[in-house]
Amino acid sequence: MSVEAMNKFRKKLEISLEGINNNNMSELIIMKQAECECCGLKEECSEAYITQIETSYSGKWVCGLCSEAVKETMKRSPETAMKEAVSSHRDFCNKYNTTTRLNPKLSFTCDMREIAKRSCESRDSTKKNLASINSVR
Ligand SMILES: [Zn+2]
């Protein structure tokens, strides 16, 4: 390799390194804490991501799980406005938060009652249900 070629190569390398540095500068990520409009989950996200989500969900930030639920609502009834879909899921979450989350034991009892009810409906499945209850414990 001639000296000239070496210099050319070095120049090229410098330019590409400069490019990498510039990219790093422009990709300086600002992290912010976002709170889910529906379930109240707090998550550290980049500002750009928060803005992107808020734009898609009528100015509200929703977590990944809730956004899936909202998307499902929109799919089921496409005439629903995004705002309505978000607030209807928020209502659902509030209901969950005031029952299951506040009183998991009560909710567990309710679930057990549901299982007992179902096993009465079908005698064959009683043994199966009891087995699954035992395995949970
Ligand atoms: Zn959520």
Query: Ranges with pLDDT <50 over ≥5 residues?
Result: none
Give the total of domains.
2
Number of helices: 6
Order of helices and strands: HEEHHHHH
Small molecules bound: zinc ion
User: What's the story with the biggest beta sheet?
Assistant: 2 strands, antiparallel
Radius of gyration: 27 Å
Kindly summarize this structure in a few lines.
With 137 residues, the protein is mainly alpha-helical.
Write the layout of secondary structure elements.
Layout: H1 3-26, E1 31-35, E2 42-46, H2 47-56, H3 64-76, H4 82-101, H5 104-121, H6 124-136
Antiparallel strand pairs: 1-2
Helix pairs in contact: 3-4, 5-6
The structure holds zinc ion.
